[in-house]
Amino acid sequence: MRGQEAREQAGRKALMATLAHAEADEIARLWNEAGLPSEAELLRGPETGLVTVRGRIGGGGAPFNVGEATVTRATVRLPSGQVGHSYALGRDKGKARLAAIADALWQDPAQREAVETKLAAPLRAALDAARETRRVETAATKVDFFTMVRGED
Amino acid sequence: MYVAVKGGEAAIANAHRLLADRRRGDRAVPALRLDQIVEQLALGVDRVMSEGSLYDRELAALAVVQARGDMIEAIFLVRAYRTTLPRFGYTNPVDSGAMQVERRISATYKDLPGGQVLGPTFDYTHRLLDPELAAGAEVETPAQRPVEPEAMPRVSAILAHEGLIEADGEMPLDHVPGDITREPLQFPMARDIRLQALSRGDEGFLLALGYSTQRGYARNHPFVGEIRIGEVELELDVPELPFAVPLGSIRVTECQMVNQFKGSAKAPPQFTRGYGLVFGQSERKAMAMALCDRALRAGELGEDVVAAAQDEEFVISHSDNVQATGFVEHLKLPHYVDFQAELGLVRRLRAEYEARENEDKVEEKKEAAE
Q1: pLDDT tens, residue by residue, A39-81
Q2: Has UniProt tagged this entry with the keyword Lyase (chain B) (predicted)?
Q3: pLDDT at B267
């Protein structure tokens, strides 16, 4: 794969990951603030289904099925022709639709900048901050071992 | 001849209406919201997700409230809901080594990369009921310790290089993971299928079996190599995209049990392993699962199968609490015709028995008279 194409895919995937993690209300709020276009033809869904989550025996061995999770997906086409997809855990159909439109808009060179700065960047900042808070709260419960010398030598 | 007996429709409708009323309880008490259950009864929600085999917090919370807090009924509701949805596919296997860890402990190594991180644990609490909680007291915000992020490799990876511990469980390369939601259970079964059954198995049943192995039934000297709880990312391969699509993250609990093993005709002395991986935060379940996984590997490791926990068919056939409750609870449904038939049979047997008794008495009297 050419470098340009790989970067392109990584960027698109990063946006999808951010949208999948983000709360529906937060996406809708930023969408309205940014005034992003929400007109799109639904090609599929939004529909809710299951994915079977896989783990690995011993953590790194052969795969096995752990259980199911709900996932909602959508596919849209913009008036300008771009087709966008979304997949995310949960059952939020409004979020699935907006996320699919965001993916389609991102593929439009004229819209990518707006999607990145007005939608993805603030969502990412909020998710990173929440993750960081959880991390430092967890770190505060790390055990610092020390040894005590007892008695006389 | 078969005569269908009808009736009870009005009684059933009114019983369900009464159930709804009793579920709601005193109207002067505010009704529970699902977000309250998700946030404040989180481990109960996790249990319903794990044994219902469906990761969806809100649905699990709805099931808990609909079932009036009856966990097995809630699990049943979630299982029934699952069957109404289409399946989009199988995710790529989660990487627990890349988990955003919220708790990670090892009972075998004090100093390990990433350290011992207690997280939100009941361990070391005094198990005293808290009257302040009853009074609705506010709680402190958590302490924070800003430190550089540190990698937390799985303990099994650290142990592996000495060669004294077995590798992660491998399967032949062409092995397709079995799926008990698609194919009926067949014995003997491969370890991957057993693990799927154990992961959704009843916590109490697996706990009791795990406990039995510690008490000497299939003794296998376990140590907790590692328990980790946290969020792992999910990705799904889909035909419409040239990369695995990210779905978000789920919280799981993983337990690596390490077991002393003296060796057998099939395997040299080493540490063997049992593995547990369950939805949500549930280390008791993950530990019990790992103990059962190890016990059920008796055949593979050349151990004698002498105890219930080692008996694959016994353990796996009875670990599913929805199946178990279905069969036990069906006994309370009308069995009028069955019972009439049995009653007739027992009456006949009793009459024959009494006739024999009387004959014997007559016989005895005759003998006594002679």
Answers
A1: 999 999 899 999 999 999 999 999 999 999 999 999 999 999 9
A2: yes
A3: 77
Q: Which of B234, B238, B253 has the highest number of chain A CBs within 10 A, making it the mutation to test binding with A?
A: B234
> For A63, phi and psi rounded to 5 degrees?
-70, 150
CB A89 within 8 A of CB B234: yes
Asked if A68 lies within 8 A of B118 by C-beta distance, the reply is: no
Determine, yes or no, domain membership for A68. Answer: yes
On chain A, the residues whose CB falls within 8 A of the CB of B49 are: 67
A82-131, pLDDT tens digit by residue?
999 999 999 999 999 999 999 999 999 999 999 999 999 999 999 999 99
What is the CB neighbour count within 10 angstroms for residue A83?
17
* Domain assignment present for A134: no
A29 vs B: CB within 8 A: no
How far is the C-alpha of B52 from the C-alpha of B322, rounded, in Å? 9
Assign B3 a pLDDT band (cuts: 50, 70, 90): low
Cβ of residue B113 closer than 8 Å to a chain A Cβ = no
Find residues 98-127 of chain A whose CB sits inside 8 Å of chain B. none
| Any domain includes A148 | no
Does residue A12 register a pLDDT over 90? yes
Within 283-322 of B, beta carbons closer than 8 Å to A belong to none
Residue with tokens 């038939």: B341
Specify the number of domains making up chain A: 1
E strand or H helix that includes residue B101: strand B100-105
- Is A141 a member of any domain? no
- Backbone CA torsion sign across B189, B283, B272, B209: negative
Residue span of the structural domain in which A55 resides: 3-126
Mean pLDDT, rounded, of chain B = 92
- How close A96 comes to chain B (CA, Å)? 11
